[in-house]
Amino acid sequence: DDGTAHDDGKESRDLEAQREAAERRGDVELAAVRHELADRVDENLDELAQELVEDEKNQIDILSRIGEVEG
């Protein structure tokens, strides 16, 4: 029985090690997904900012032309 108890303990430790390894892999995969998502958000925010700057530039150009007409 001592050998069986020893084997059960080793098997339990092996299973725990496998579970921990799977968790670490999951954490790495989750971190990669989060990083990819953050990159996409950054790209979208950059595009939005560029569009807003362009729109504001157009508004300033229009106001400048109105000022020239009035002036």
Give the secondary structure arrangement, pairings included:
Blueprint lengths: L1 H69 L1
How is this structure best described in words?
The protein is 97% helix and 0% strand. The protein is built from 1 helix and no strands. The radius of gyration is 30 Å and the shape is rod-shaped. It starts with a helix and ends with a helix.
Protein traits:
mainly alpha; 1 helix; 97% helix; 71 residues
Tell how many strands the DSSP assignment holds.
0
One letter per element, helices H and strands E, the order comes to H
Distance between the termini: 103 Å
Sketch the major β-sheet.
none
Structural class, from secondary structure content?
A: mainly alpha
**Arithmetic mean of pLDDT:** 85
Q: Which stretches are low in confidence, meaning pLDDT under 50 for 5 or more residues running?
A: none
Please state the CA-atom Rg, rounded to the nearest Å.
Answer: 30 Å
Number of helices: 1
Shape descriptor:
rod-shaped
Beta content comes to under 5%
Q: How much helicity do the residues have?
A: over 70%
Summed up, what is this model?
By secondary structure, the protein is mainly α.
